[in-house]
Amino acid sequence: MRLDINLASQPYEDAREFWLRWGTGLAVAAIVTLALLTLTITGRYAARRDHARIADLRAQIAQLDRTRAQDEAYLNRPENRATRDQSQFLNELIALKSFSWTRVLEDLEKVMPARVHLVSIHPELDEDNQLALKMTVAGDSRERAIELARRMEDSRRFTETRIDNENLKPSTGGDTIELNINAIYVPEPVPVQTPKPEISKRGRP
User: Fold this and answer.
1) What is the reported pTM?
2) Which domain holds residue 113?
């Protein structure tokens, strides 16, 4: 029988295998740490840029609000009220002239779900001279009525769509729910027609 006895004061260690194992782990940890630091620095830079952009937009909004308040104060003076009322009246005429019942009903028909119908509609100008529509719709399903509001918001003709009120209507075969929907109507721009040049005809001498 042969016995191998290590009589050295310090046992033998394979340093190459040790550094190969632990060195690989340290390298992976360093790469992960570097990636996290890069993401952190990039995120902070983007957040700082976004904060600066938001602050700039808020400053612009505040400046516009101050300008609007000054203009309203100027128009609210007694000597300027006649001009203000006349200007508001003209703006309403211009806006209402661009309102077409036929076009509005056609646009509503495109987004109206099945078994949902229009009960009433009332257009008016809001404080920003936008065409606001107050509508009442009815149907046999709440989900279909809500689907109408979603389709309106997804279309290009309606914006700021919201449901203000819901009324349940007990019925055995007709409408079971009635909703009040408010939205801003965006008319389709009318194409500008370029007048054709007139050709003058000269008579024979």
Assistant:
1) 0.46
2) 100-185
Task: Give a yes or no: residue 190 inside a domain.
Answer: no
Same domain, 54 and 104: no
The total of structural domains in the chain comes to: 2
Query: Would residue 8 be called left, alpha or beta, if left means φ above 0 and alpha means ψ between -120 and 50 degrees?
Result: beta
How high is the mean pLDDT of the chain? 77
CB 137 within 8 A of CB 158: no
CA-CA-CA-CA torsion for 138, 140, 144, 145, nearest 10 degrees? 20
Q: What is the CATH number of the domain that holds 136?
A: 3.30.70.2830
- Judgement on whether residues 178 and 141 belong to the same structural domain of the protein: yes
What secondary structure does DSSP assign to the chain, as a single string?
--------SS----HHHHHHHHHHHHHHHHHHHHHHHHHHHHHHHHHHHHHHHHHHHHHHHHHHHHHHHHHHHHHTSGGGHHHHHHHHHHHHHHHHHT--HHHHHHHHHHHPPTTEEEEEEEEEE-TTS-EEEEEEEEES-HHHHHHHHHHHHHSSSEEEEEEEEEEE---SSS--EEEEEEEEE-PPPPPPPPPPPP-PPPPP-
Q: What is the pLDDT of residues 84-124, one digit of tens each?
A: 665 665 566 556 666 678 888 889 999 999 889 999 998 88
Residue 133 in any domain: the answer is yes
pLDDT at 199: 53
Is residue 41 included in any domain, yes or no? yes
